[in-house]
Amino acid sequence: MTTFYLGERSLKRLDGVHEDLIRVVRHAIKLSSVDFSVLEGCRTVNRQQQLLEAGATTTMKSRHLTGHAVDLGAYLCGQIHWDWPLYWQIADAMKEAADKEAIAIQWGGDWKTFPDGPHFELSWQDYPP
Ligand SMILES: [Zn+2]
């Protein structure tokens, strides 16, 4: 089995993200059967406003604003792919890593309304804003 590692750009995008979430991401990349990149960590209020206006998000209370969320992208053959089955595999790795690190996370793909496959965040309960 191939072991993947986070590239420089991915590491840079983890700047300002909560250390526990970084720990889960760093652990998950070693377990994942699919390579992934960090697409986004911290987000400014301006950017969140733009995403809201574009319909790409439904909230101004995003966990990205506080460093409690990351978006991961499945990376295959030099580009990001959006097929759900790839995100099930990434979610498996993230959940297993979170379990082993004893850190509570939520996967956006488990949300009933507006499921968000690339999105992972620390639990609101254990990590209030
Ligand atoms: Zn997100």
Automatic annotation (TrEMBL):
Query: Which Pfam families does the entry link to?
Result: Peptidase_M15_4 (PF13539)
Q: Where is the Peptidase M15C domain?
A: 57-122
Under the heading Gene3D superfamilies, the entry gives: 3.30.1380.10
InterPro entries attached here? Answer: Peptidase_M15C, Zn_M74/Hedgehog-like
GO molecular function terms noted in the UniProt entry: peptidase activity
Could you tell me what this protein is called? Peptidase M15C domain-containing protein
